[in-house]
Queue: 4 jobs
Job 1
Amino acid sequence: MYPLIRNRRLRTSESIRRLVRETIVTPDDFLVPLFLVGGKHVKEEIPSMPNYYRLSLDNLEKEVKELWQMGLRAVLLFVKVPDDLKDNKGTEALNPEGLMQRAIKAVKNACPEMLVMTDVALDPFSSYGHDGIVADRQILNDETSEVLAEMSVSHAKAGADFVAPSDMMDGRILTIREALENEGFQNTGIMSYSAKYASAFYGPFRDALDSAPVDIANVPKDKKTYQMDYANRFEALKETQMDIDEGADIVMIKPGLCYLDIVREIKNEVDVPVAVYQVSGEYAMLKAASEKGWLDHDAVMLEQLTAIKRAGANIIASYFAKDFVRTIS
Ligand code: PBG
């Protein structure tokens, strides 16, 4: 007459809910993206990313000490490059005294145990805002992979622990792995953006780095010939498996929230750690809605981060890392 099994018994109090909770996000899960600029004493707020900043290297040192204090132990570095240093081949990316190379050293100087991952792609250095070299309205695959391999070695020389190729060229993981091995960087890891979709959620990031594809003749206006079509699922598995076979230590799915079906599927198939990038547009949406008073910022943030982890993420790259730590401390 009455139900013998009442699932609500396990929900009667916060104490029992905590006891049976399956997924708990902790500071150890986070990879913190950081945006760097030249100059001194610079801390510029990114207009489409409230409370997120571009930092000069002196402020980077302060920031990583603060992150470390908060229990955040891994950073993912991006640089904003002035237009006069940009060209089609991303030459500045290989400068041993370039901003990225100096940033890696600055982090290690401020906080030797902080794990440093670096973005590897040409877009911040490209006069066309593309992740690879442009020729004849195309993005050149193999020529780009060669530059990315040199860039990776340059980051490894500066002290990066992991390189994170975000470009989606075919075969670049193998090219990068071989270059690292040949140069003696056996222990430098590769976190591959293996299933990276051509997403409209990257807008604020491109504002942050001034890296959007330019709108001129003979240059593709978007990244759809290399980033994945968001309608595709099987292709994500294929891309990810290939990157693992080529030597990726960690694979990544990007963006986060709209792609959690892909995260779960990949997590069920692969035996390497899976990272998810909760991207700039996802951050901007919640900041905007909460500024308007339409969403409860901290509650929605926690729900989203927990959902990403529940879907199978071992690592979450997120602009909410510090907000998260503040809410739990
Ligand atoms: C570029 C790169 C992008 C992001 C990370 N690396 C943007 C793009 O592909 O245009 C996006 C991250 C974000 O939106 O937070 N290689």
Note: The chain is about 40% helix and 20% strand.
Job 2
Amino acid sequence: SQALAYRFEVKEATYTRLCGTKSILTVNGQFPGPTIYARKGDIVIVKVVNISKYNITIHWHGVKQPRNPWSDGPEYITQCPIKPGGVFTQTVILSEEEGTIWWHAHSDWARATVHGAFIIYPKHGTNYPFQKPDFEVPIILGEWWKRDIVEVYKEFRATGGEPNVSDAFIINGQPGDLYPCSSGDTFKLQVHNGATILLRIINAALNHVLFLAISNHPTIIVGTDGSYTKPLTRDYISIGPGQTIDALLEANQFPGRYYIAARAYSSGVNVSYDNTTTTAILEYDAAYNNASSSPSLPCLPYYNDTKASYSFTSSLRSLASKDHPVKVPLKVNHRIFSTISVNLLPCPVNRTCEGPNGSIFAASMNNISFVLPNIDVLEAYYYHIKGVYGKQFPRYPHPPFDFTAEYQDLRLEVAKLSTQVRVFRYNSTVEIILQGTNLVSGLDHPMHLHGQSFYVVGSGFGNFDKHKDPKHYNLVDPPLQNTVVVPKNGWTTIRFKAHNPGVWYMHCHFERHLTWGMMTTFIVKDGKDLKSRMLPPPSDMPPC
Ligand code: C2O
Ligand code: CU
């Protein structure tokens, strides 16, 4: 393994999209930001220099950071923000991950424009477990707001209602030619007839699960979240915010021009959604000179087709080969059953409350709407600072109720505001059953865990049945992921071994739900020997 160095300057830059020009926050002036290239097991040192006027943190999404939560990045969980003029050198320690992951800002809504791909190649002397592609390309899906994202965020916080919906979806920073003023802002993927291309697909959108398809070209999924899967051929993919998918595209069709298209999968009934479609163009070299031939659109599932999304999500399987074995824990030391809900809070005096019936929205896990502290949980834990967090994140919901019933007791909709974590012994095994609820509105939730990937051993619709459902767990080749879309009015069970000492965030990767508090934090204690303890903090931790 080797050490690689990157310099990330967080600064504003001017971009023109959708007939308007505005200043956005970027890394090194690029949007999407720079791609990091590394090999499995490398160490990447990133000097983050904040020359913007905003507080910022950067997270390496999918990097486990063994023993090193200090460089993980989520604001007020593992660090305080890097203030304007501040510098923080982050040590990104790669271990098992191989394939595509990504990086993004982890403070307020800055990640709308501050994000990029993180590509991890196999170690020298080893190969992909699939046919070597002729070339590869990141396909970063995102959202574009005509307004300043800081204003959108502030207004969202101030009103307590739903956030403004973005004005476009984008592929590699570009909306594509179905949007106004965007024919020049269309990403083009040019290919030779017969080539195989590795698409490194990242959903960097803030608030939407997305369907993606390529006209006439099914793709072969070979990896997700920096881990290989059994090859899976599909006409469309469904990808939650935070997720990554490695897919092979074979340019073996009539050498013409084809649309690559993506749009929202939106399962919440009363959640405003965006029905617009972002496009890129797949163009065979024989067709370069025939730019007039207009591409055809692929079929995408309907915007609220939960079955289509779920059938994709639940088909992923670990490669489970000799070189890429499955290590799913068979015995469970800590079992947590957690609801994931959208909630309401009564309107505090003297503020506007645009949620249903004059309330404000909140969101929760086990009815705790997590409040970010003023000193990060990691430093509070490490330096024994009292009163920053409690250790009472509930292991099950109380009272239990019919989670997915169509009508709910309105009293259940109110959540508690609190900062509660759960502590795990080093090397203990953890199972978490994530149960969606129909409070306020049932919808899918892309749940993400920092510090370790988890095996997705089971999922289904309705209420989890502790007698029946575990019998159908897949303990043979469950996919290894860091983000999983829990289906609307359904549940998902994940398992992992807590072998990474530190402080690790778990949250919904819909930015609006994160802001509303759908999150918790796990502390994995140090083991006994030196090699199973957290590394010491770097000397330049941003001050709180
Ligand atoms: Cu993609 Cu907590 O992050
Ligand atoms: Cu959510």
Note: Helices lie at 149-159, 306-313, 377-382, 511-516.
Job 3
Amino acid sequence: MIKNYFPIDQSKSLNKKILIQPLFVDQKVKNSKEIKGLGDNKSWSSSSIIKAIEKDLKKGIKNFLLFIVPNKKQKHPEDFSFHYEVIRKIKNYFGKDIVLLIDTCLCSITVDGHCGVTHKKSIDLNKTHYSLGLAANTYLEAGADIIAPSDMMKNTTKYLRKIFVQNGFSNSQIMSYSTKFKSHFYGPFRDVAKSSPKGFDRSSYQLPVEDKVKAIKSSINNAAQGANYLMVKPGMTSIDLIRDIKKETLLPTGAYQVSGEYASLQMLSKAKFGNYVDLLLESLTVLKRAQADFIITYGARDIAKYL
Ligand code: PBG
């Protein structure tokens, strides 16, 4: 039996089990480094991340989405040794006490910050899939629980499924960023992940916010290609999509409250226009009302004790 980490959630109220805390590990960081706009979230070094996770576990958070930012940029990414080291260290230490999802994308590795390998202002799909496949394999070998491709290129989930079977990882799990909009709410993230795109924007691979049919279709495609879990992002620009996606695919579907959404709550509270916990709780409650089966939020560790 393959474990279902995030089953369809029938309960009406928020609980800790459905929350996923994003974490950043940056090879350039010595111990830890503040992240502008994201409150208590920091970039960690590959050793200090252990203490950070221990603290979150004590608060009752056990699901983590890991973003790894390596030193070296690569035109054709194929060296994922830093990623391997970090994932291995974390899983060796915590084992099954945590569920470790790894964001699988090329934007913090490529020279131009694009989510794929580029050639003359467009994406080279074959080279992109090849690199993503190497990455995902490495993460699984290191002990990752769930691969979370966020590149939004055509047929990535299908490609990963194929190579997982070839490499003896048939039971591996994929959480696809299946409906991901080209959004202006990713600002703080791109600052930490050093992934702002150069030369052209992401509209050739991310979705336009105005097209509901296309947005739902994208998740249906990822389901057909073999994703175990689907996700919409940004959360607040997708609340009307979650129910439809679940109805069409019968798969657990989560929402990602992205960096810009979360930073806006922080800014409101800093300006004394509202209370941080109240703002956060309200915004997450609405994602739950929209039937999200799991929620990725930078505030997971802060809200845990209120649930
Ligand atoms: C990379 C990626 C992005 C986010 C998650 N993975 C940014 C982007 O697409 O530019 C955004 C997360 C956030 O803003 O919190 N593909």
Note: The chain is about 35% helix and 20% strand.
Job 4
Amino acid sequence: DANDLGKGTYPYYMLKEIDEQPAAIRRIIQEYQDDQGQLTIDSEIIAAMQASDRIYIIGAGTSMHAGLVGQALFEQLNGIPVEVHVASEFAYNMPLLTEKPFFIFLSQSGETADSRQVLVQVNELGYDSLTITNVKGSTLSREASYTLLLHVGPEIAVASTKAYTGQIAVMAVLADVLANAQGRKLDFDMETELSLVANAMETVVDDKDHLHEIATQIFTDVRNAFYIGRGLDYYVSCEAALKLKEISYIQTEGFAGGELKHGTISLIEDGTPVLAVISQKDTAAHTRGNLEETRARGANTVVITMEGMERQDDQIVIPAVHSLLAPLVTVVPTQLLAYYASLDRDLDVDKPRNLAKAVTVE
Ligand code: G6P
């Protein structure tokens, strides 16, 4: 039960919270269903989004990374332009806004000072806003025009896992309901696809021993690592890199696969781990090419891909899910790899040095 504040038999909250993700996705589907079993969202939120000419997604850390996936969802399913911004930058370096902006604040805690600073300004300007948060009654929730809850249960580990996937799932529901309201006919059923995502996550979290082996093989004694991908796979790479660096202290960068050759590839040495996220058909071959370039320079390469796209030597193959929702599943092995890298180093997985769960100073 996600509401049980104890760790139960788990050594760390992070592992428990990773494991809770399939159930959390199923709970989100339930919480956002009407009596007829249709996905539903407060009609005022839908009306406000429909009236807007651009969505601005604001967040920090992992929440900002979830926002990048949200951008793809709203742009592709709703045809509304989206900008994603780091809260601390937006607050003091605000871009030119469109005529009818709509703001989405992503915040697990609902208390991040950087995000709140933006919300204060948005309220002064009189624009509509929605906070998507895990904490009912939190500051960002109270001060925004609207709130949607994650319903993933309390997240205790500093490294965020189920909040990231929860934020993406809630945005997927939102994009789906909005598409309906817009009269845009989607060629897939969101509820069904999210259920498949939950099942696929379950397969991944059942693969722990294999993922621990890979983590030990590639991360022992290394000081830096890379995740690469393109498009949605790039966004997951950013989150995967953050997760690994924050709890293992291995300096890790998430990189756009095609950009690596424009400088950063000079950092690749014998044994540098380079992990590629490959779930998008149109860019798979290019990312494989980019990974091969690093392997030729000595990198220890790992492929995270999806059934139907795998090649013989690919180490991590997740069950097939809808390509737009792939980040919900490809991120899970990267969470577990980070967890085992931290565990292998005898670090306190749940309480990495210098970090706080919620940062309430700007
Ligand atoms: C802190 C946490 C991160 C989190 C970020 C944003 O830095 O350590 O895990 O992603 O704050 O937090 P929020 O609660 O706004 O999502």
Note: DSSP finds 13 helices and ten strands in the chain.
